[in-house]
UniProtKB/TrEMBL annotation:
One of the record's GO molecular function terms: oxidoreductase activity
InterPro entries given in the database record: FAD/NAD-bd_sf, FAD/NAD-binding_dom, SQRD
Protein name, UniProt field: Pyridine nucleotide-disulfide oxidoreductase
Lineage: superkingdom: Archaea
Transmembrane segments: none
Domain FAD/NAD(P)-binding: 1-293
Amino acid sequence: MDVLVLGSSYAGLATVHKLRKFLKDINITIISKSRIVRENTIFPLLLTNDIYIKDTEFDAKNVVESKGVNFIEGEVLEIYPNSREVKTNKGIYDYDYLFLALGGGYEENFRKIPGNEYAVMHHTLEGFLRLKDLLYKSEGNIFVGNAKSSPIEGPSYQVALISEYILRRRGVKSKVYLSTQSPKGIFGNIPNEEVISKANSYFKKRGIEVLAGKTVKEIKKDRVVLSDGTEIEAEVKSILPALSAPETVKRSELVDDSGFVNVSLPSFRKDERIFGLGDLAKTPLPRTARNAMISAENAVSTLLKDLRGVSLPMYGLGVLCVMEGGDDGGIFRMEKGKAFLEFDRHFITIKKMYSRMLVRSGFDMPFHGAPHI
Ligand SMILES: Cc1cc2nc3c(=O)[nH]c(=O)nc-3n(C[C@H](O)[C@H](O)[C@H](O)COP(=O)(O)OP(=O)(O)OC[C@H]3O[C@@H](n4cnc5c(N)ncnc54)[C@H](O)[C@@H]3O)c2cc1C
């Protein structure tokens, strides 16, 4: 039996580790653009020199080949579900089961924002390095925000807090603006007024001006144009775009009108042979690394039940976000509708430790602190 996994990050590698743990006798191949994988949730700490690039990366080819899994460093070009084939720049691969774990099309969606050349995207390593350079040079205002329908705001909250910290340390008196999609501000889409109020008070105390219920429409050289027409003067503009599955997946007709792969939950199954995982799957929750790993857990458990009749626990999706905020930190957790938010700088240490374990294990970290369902 041939299992093909596309993408070697949180979702793809978690899939491979669990498949190999339970199925010793199948052929597993993982295809990804680069054998060097980065733990991107820790990137905000690059801005404050709390970590170095080398702390974030590992060689996925070495990790999986030590378990008897084939790693192909190549680009996925086309997916043909009818003939069960995947075309790459290294050849054509066929499969019995396919796990799609190619992430979200961040870069292609960022390029669609008018004036994106005047902004950075706080998602890629390159984006964070450019942002770092600007934050230590700039004397002007900083704007951080998301385009409409962006599925994750946590990184923007962190970038705003860290920007405030860097300006404060540099003695620069400019403003930090943070736009949020919800009119209620920070964590405004969470059904818990206490959390929303606590979060907004905290950002206010840190001197960050929250522009609630506004998204980024256009970027100009010295300003950002928001959805309601407001223009904010800013020298540094750091943005997260709207999201969809990458174009390669869209072309395969596996996505619906939402732009994502419409899977059944909690199995993340698209159809009998295909699972859609992580950032490219359609779910009602933010696209996070934790949910990407949980999607892999649930998908592999579903396949194991089909193939071997083994029943393993399925996990519920939720939110667990540790925020890095310069000289302070925070944790936000939401499971089964219950939400919790606390601020304390020691949470940053916990995040660094967890990140270290992710990197050291090559994303083989099957504990997600998530409830069984
Ligand atoms: C700054 C920042 C902070 C974050 N903080 C948190 C946090 O605290 N907690 C949390 O849970 N989440 C956090 N996230 C979100 C999290 O990083 C993403 O949800 C996660 O990366 C999604 O994992 P994935 O496996 O679905 O996709 P990705 O990590 O995007 O991986 C996709 C993989 O597919 C490969 N690929 C893509 N296209 C092709 C192709 N055509 N051919 C071959 N290979 C391809 C890529 O190279 C990559 O290896 C954060 C994100 C950012 C940017």
